[in-house]
Amino acid sequence: MSRILVAMSGGVDSSVAAALIARQGHEAVGVWMRLHDVADSYSEFKKSCCSLDAADDARRVAAQLGIPFYVMNLEREFDAGVLQPFLDAYLDGRTPSPCVDCNTYVKFGALLGRARHLYDCEAVATGHYARRVVAPDGSARLARAVDTDKDQTYFLYGLRQDQLEHARFPLGELTKPEVRAIARELDLVTADKPESQEICFVPGGDYREALRERAGWTETPGPIIDGDDGERVGEHRGAAAYTVGQRQGLGVALGAPRYVSRIDPVTNTIQLGRREDLETRVFGVERASFVGGAAPIGGAGGAFRADVRIRHRAEPIPATVRPATDDQPARGGDWVVETDAPVWAAAPGQAAVFYDGEIVLGGGRISRPAAAMGPDAITTARTDALELRASA
User: Is 200 noted as a catalytic residue in this protein?
Assistant: First the structure.
């Protein structure tokens, strides 16, 4: 059996993950990660994974299981890989995916590196609802969890082969009720603890506070433009305070509901649109990565078919994914995605994840919605998609 480091957040999922690793006969080593200054305070509602009470709970569970427990300081790595990209994204008019960055650069990046070199651990186990499957050729694949309601593969698409090889997901074959039942059977102190429901470094839940405190952002009013006729219909509090798809808090009344359709941080302008204006079938993807190390072998021009999910728990939509070219650009993206059915509010900066059934192929960040792409690029993408589907 192996020595396996378990990332313990102080919640029920990672607690049961540690228990299962130990039950399997492995030598479990519990670690709680100190990621930022929120670790110096207690969470009022005990729903944070990174506050002092979370560390206390993780330590108590480790004691119950009889496994060693350590606190590891990864503040510098978290700041560079998660916090600063989060702040930069909002200031640039994009919507970040901090959990993707945390998994890729912290849990299965810095933590995995230290686990192997400092603790001589074979792998890092977490409480994620996901499965690691070994293919006949020995390569590792990332598969959706049995509990589809809890599946967290959307946040894990960025793992490389060398990371996935040393990743363990003990909860992948279990449902949430089964996990709770195991925790109660073992009388773990976290058995009935509520789930974390906030961004760990934004305790109050309002990311604008993080922008003020950590990036020095101040509210700078600017124009709100109606996409129908380009008319100025109001004034906003500052472009970084809004996300694509947002409806609440706009302070305008135009008859039919309006949503944020585009954010221009350079001119500090917010553009609104009707709900149907935010529907799209074509968008670009940048910073793409693939779990297998390379994109799937596709048809003409490298295009391939996949189910695409543009937000956590969204229904995957069948799509054609093709490389962007100079004459058919994705406006800054590496790939162009054309979905068989419209998707809504494809927000720049959010993750778009590609699936082949239960297997995660990879993904990237949405670069631009279809409305920002030229009509020629959209027409070409649709033609490629029809040809690929016809040959399938």
Answer: yes
